[in-house]
Amino acid sequence: MKRPRGPLFLARRSYRLRRMMDAARMLPAVGMFLFFLPILWRPADTPQPDTARGWIFLFMAWAVLIALALVLARFLVRAEEEEARLSSGDPLATDQMRD
Amino acid sequence: MTGKVLLIEDEPHIAEAIRYVLDRDGWQVVTHGEGADAMRVLRRERPDAVILDLMLPGRSGHDILAEIRADPELHGLPVLILSAMGQAQERARAHQAGASGFVAKPFGNDEIVRALREVAAR
Amino acid sequence: MVPFNILVAVCLVYVGFLFLIAFAAERRAARGRVGWLRSPLVYTLSLSIYCTAWTFYGAVGYAARSGLEFLTIYLGPTLVMVGWWLVLRKLVRIGRRQRVTSIADLISSRFGKSNLLGVLVTVICVVAATPYIALQLQSVTLSFGVFASDAPEGWALPNQSATALWVAAGLALFTILFGTRNLDANERHHGVVIAIAVEAVVKLVALVAVGIFVVWGIAGGWQGVVETINSSAIAEWQLQPGRWIGLTCVSAAAILTLPRMFQVMVVENADERHLATASWAFPLYLLLMSVFVVPIAAVGLTTLPAGSNPDLFVLTLPLAQGQGQLAMLAFLGGFSSATSMVIVASIALATMVSNHIVVPLWLSIRQRTAKGRATGDVRGMVLMARRLSIGGVLALGYSYYHLSGGSAALASIGLIAFLGAAQILPAMLGGIFWRGATGAGAAMGLIVGFIVWIYTLYLPSFGEDGLISHDLMQLGPWGIAWLRPHALFGIEGLDPVLHTLFWSLSLNAISFVCGSLFTFPSPIERMQGVAFVNVFDTDADTRGWSRGGAEAEDLLIMAQGILGADEAQAFFQAEAEAQGKAGLLPDTTPEFIDRLERRLAGAVGAATAHAMIAQFAEGAVVSAQDLMAVASEAQQIMEYSIQLEAKSEELARTARQLQEANDKLRDLSVQKDAFLSQISHELRTPMTSIRAFSEILMDPELPPGMQQKYAEIIHDETIRLTRLLDDLLDLSVLENRKVQLNIKVANLHDLIEKAVRAASSTQPQRSFTLHRDPPAEHIPVITDTDRLLQVFINLISNARKYCDAERPELTISARKRGGRIIVDFIDNGSGIPKEARRLIFEKFSRLTDNNQAGGAGLGLAICREIMANLGGSITYLPGQGGAAFRVSLPVRPPKEIIERAKTS
Q1: By the 8 A CB rule, do C363 and C381 touch?
Q2: Which sequence spans correspond to the domains of chain A?
Q3: Beta carbons of B58 and C693 less than 8 Å apart
Q4: Does C88 touch chain A (CB under 8 A)?
Q5: What ipTM was reported for this prediction?
Q6: More confident residue, C121 or C765
Q7: Coil vs helix vs strand at B21
Q8: pTM higher than 0.90, yes or no?
Q9: Cα–Cα distance between C846 and B110 in angstroms, integer?
Q10: Fold (topology level) of B4-121
Q11: Contact between residue C884 and residue C827 where contact means Cβ atoms under 8 Å apart
Q12: What class is the C743-903 domain?
């Protein structure tokens, strides 16, 4: 039986969506890793006091995390709207959604 | 012959007109304006004849007629029915229920006098 | 230098400005133009109440004392926000689906609508928040003090305590005004949210402005700042891994469980997608709020004289540099932080106190005394309870401040409050992720955590020999060493906050889990568990009610008491329409009762709404059928039965519609026969009198005095006959929609006035009390005013004729709602019996056989046709305590009616 092309495309698309959701779930873990890194690094144990560097590092990490969250949030909102639109029209598409 | 007649009619103007006409004909007229209490008045007044309107507040004329006919003391009482429904079927229904006479509204004054005399004479 | 008077004036102007903004927002929302009031930006800014005065002033002090550790307070929330997909999204979805009103309501609702849990959570929150509110009052007072002590003119604050009292009273007033204006079913406060969004901007701008001044105005750019940091005491800071991780976790927990955060994040959320924006925008806000903290602290430590309070560097640095206006801006920023926190916290706490403590108490007292169902005006009572609670919460905060004398112990209160609120976390997370969590487990966890927290951190925070004696701290109660508050089970040397964090949360979680494993949940609990944990899977809602004996009319009366008449009537009407029924009374299906309960829960909380409905839905609350649905969790069976149910419901609805149509048809045919004989009767009756009396008049023996009287009777009966014929013709023209309309503009007030005057000739001997609200009646109407007047006169005359109360009263209320003008006529008689309501608008349907009342029973039929011709309607309003009619017509007449008026 010939498979229609449409669902294949949709499946790939929704596969990406699933992985983006996974990424969104993992983001706090990434944040924790970044924020807890200074513990290993022990800024005050180094001969030169470099609290300033720790300060800069934390803010950089923070900014990176915000940027990641921004990208993911944009993607997820748009993808969710699309999914809602597609799944209402095409039952095959929703079947493929379950990974 | 004349005597005492009980008029059961809820429209005050119609009752007043009938009372005037029968009065002139020598009847003693007692009026009553609704249906629920009509039987009690009837038993108290003991009239020689009854003029009964069919559409009454409280209790319908049909009910009252049926009770009169079922009562061993009253079942022979002459009852003249007044009705705003003039159709033949209404007339037949009244007779079947035991009405002694039937007058449709609007009526001529002579008509009601004649009908009452006729009914009372029977 | 800023003179104190100007400072006070600026404060007052600022507060006035906030009043205006909040007021404008409320007005806008009331007109239905919510728009940008509920944008993602406003949502994000409203979350900023996380940054209180503690963070505005205290963060710099914290940084000066413990280096970068202050950042943990911001990093924790950042982790929660960027992880929105995991927890927050689910919380918000549950909050919206279940119409949750507070965090106490969430916990109570999840665990079987248990009021015990609601009370527990409320108590924890109030205890934890009281010192925190005191801290805000203190910070405002202190910042006033900064200006006072530096003033060269030598003015001083008259009395610190008095200042705090004024601030507390002002905040209570603001909160009561905008937090309890209405009992919204969604518990949303547009005015308050906009005001705190503005305050969020003010505090960010203030802190950033001070930061920019410090970095580029004093330290000489970033390079200088880095050097200053590394040469200041902050460089000596040692990162303590335990505190670093622990505090991050505590603040992450706090943003989820602090009542005020729950209020803005979940309860006030208008759109789930706003969360996506806030997930990065709020961390960005936090970053901006904290980026200048370390520079300010470092510069303050190196430039200001030793011994100055680092908590106030934000104010004292600009002041020391002669930047009075910048200091003023910083002052406003701190003021904003304190006020917005207090406002939202007191709203959230007041909602909890009134919904979980005051209302249930009131209900149980009423039930015991009156033995009746609580139906009266619950609304007014709830609002009053809220207002009193707000006053109470602020009074508690003030008295704490007053008693503690603004001691330094307050400084650590922020973290203590965070830890207190965090006790709710296990129950919350367990509740939304674990279906096995039970109410008993949650209660045990909460109680254990709360006690450990109070004992090891809260009470000792009042200082040595404060509430806990020195001996007890050192030796333990009754000399039992392993029960010492700061060394439970003999673990010594831990930081007190970490010690409490560890013991309270672990014992809390263990009790919660064990309690849940060893207790069995009630059916409602299990159903709520599914509704919460599987909130994304189930579109169909779980059902809580089996068919009870509830009467729709009783429910309507109760709902009117809580939601207000308009709101409740609209809800009932929509429900009835969805069932395919006309009128205001839907069938009391389980689905309907369920939706009603959720609607009520939005106003008074889940537990109370459940209890109120239970008064009416008598018998078993949960049927055997529902129990089976819970017991058999095989998904397929459930899905299948849901489909079947949907189909059978569809069938039932169609059948109901058919039945109604059939009834109507049968009634119509019976009516048609009745109509003809009625016409015959109504025409013959006056004709009989006319004929009889005209014959009498021909009688030559008629006494002359009687002639006049009988002629008058004939005259009256002729008029009666003419009126009847007129009415019949009018009705027939109206029914065929051929009536000539004469559209004019009039003031509704004038029309009602005229109608009242015209109707006063009906039964003039009866004294009648009229209740009206003349100012509300001034509404312009564009319609055939003569026809509308005819309807009003008819309704008022009817009330005069048929109202059977001993002291008859008629209430006429008019208002404009959703493009329609609505006028209600409600009398205090015994009303119209249910069976008769369907027929009163039909021709000749006189309720009493009382001919003396005059008229042939065409009045209401004509009214109905007139209103239909005007594009409006007239309906009977059930549940108003008397006969009640609602006239409703469009503000502007529909197009076809205008066209008809033109052509005719």
Answers
A1: no
A2: 17-40+50-97
A3: no
A4: no
A5: 0.91
A6: C121
A7: helix
A8: no
A9: 34
A10: Rossmann fold (3.40.50)
A11: yes
A12: alpha beta
